[in-house]
């Protein structure tokens, strides 16, 4: 998760009104992809990381600083992207307080059979994202 936090910091200058989220994908203990929130309307952290995966990769675990979005807006649902990519397990730093999400991304992943763990380095991530959380959608 520390690497995902570092990855999210790369997004601070360009994420606009989106939280600067970081995501890393790990397979068999090896980091295989990383991503961060791009400028508004472009890839979120999960989509950026997933785009780096090779076809047919299995047993990939995601570490994401903020709950993957369950809804589509300017970009598709990140929770759905993780499901479609065949991610087997997701570690989430904190729940997204945005009322359009707020646990719905976690529920969507769980309903798809993905093991989800919430609260990994939550205090640190909350401090990092404090200025972005609670903004009106």
What does this structure look like?
The chain is an alpha/beta fold. 27% of the residues lie in helices and 22% in strands. It is built from 5 helices and 5 strands; from the N terminus they run H-E-E-H-E-H-E-H-E-H. The chain is globular, with a radius of gyration of 13 Å.
In short:
Helices cover 27% and strands 22% of the residues. It has five helices and five strands, in the order H-E-E-H-E-H-E-H-E-H.
Write the layout of secondary structure elements.
Elements: H1 2-9, E1 22-27, E2 30-36, H2 45-50, E3 60-66, H3 78-84, E4 89-94, H4 104-111, E5 115-118, H5 122-129
Parallel strand pairs: 3-4, 4-5
Antiparallel strand pairs: 1-2, 1-3
Helix pairs in contact: 3-4
Please supply descriptive tags for the structure shown above.
5-stranded mixed sheet, globular, 137 residues, alpha/beta, 22% strand, 5 helices, 5 strands
